[in-house]
Write a structure and sequence with these properties.
Helix content is 31%, strand content 31%. By secondary structure, it is α/β, with parallel strands linked by helices.
Length: 182
């Protein structure tokens, strides 16, 4: 299946502004940084969580711990995705018990990744609360889950695809909208 780019939705500067805004919203909702931690979902949620943590450091002068979460084995659609899943290693080097955990990912679509992340976090312990921070919410939720912090809402059709590129992974930072060509 091929994809044709339809529109550039966010430039590097737009992404950075959205992440600064999300960092401010997280600090405001949490009334500071006490008991706060960030957990990025592999792949692009990890650098997004790290960028948000850097922004919180600039805003509050507090270094918030960042973990990395592989949700592969928690997916309910694992057999549909690939017959041979590649399982990475989660790295959450702090106790989540009693913490406010902010789960970070790039795109919210069906909410199944977010549900899997909730399961994975609960296997690590019992946080006081779990919030979801998303760069792009594109709609089409299949589960009763919503993001608490959203960089941008972009309603899409099922034939469209949001492509997030981050400098740490892709060599450039942008968000584009493409459509499937059969």
């Amino acid at each position: 299946m091929q994809f044709v780019q339809k529109a550039m939705l966010m430039t590097k500067e737009d992404v950075e502004r959205a992440l600064v805004r999300i960092a401010h919203q997280i600090v405001e909702k949490n009334h500071g940084c006490d008991n706060l931690c960030l957990v990025g979902i592999y792949t692009r949620g990890v650098p997004l969580a790290e960028r948000i943590a850097q922004n919180i450091l600039k805003i509050e002068g507090v270094k918030v711990p960042v973990g990395r979460l592989d949700i592969t084995m928690y997916r309910d659609d694992l057999t549909k995705k690939t017959p041979d899943p590649v399982v990475g290693k989660s790295d959450v080097p702090f106790d989540v018990n009693g913490k406010t955990v902010i789960v970070v990912d790039d795109v919210l679509f069906t909410c199944r990744t977010a549900r899997a992340a909730l399961d994975a976090i609960c296997d690590l312990g019992r946080p006081d609360r779990v919030y979801l921070a998303i760069l792009i919410d594109r709609g089409h939720a299949e589960l009763p889950i919503r993001a608490n912090f959203v960089g941008k809402n972009i309603p899409t059709s099922l034939n469209e695809v949001i492509k997030v590129k981050l400098g740490e992974i892709d060599g450039e930072t942008s968000v584009s909208l493409s459509y499937k060509v059969k």
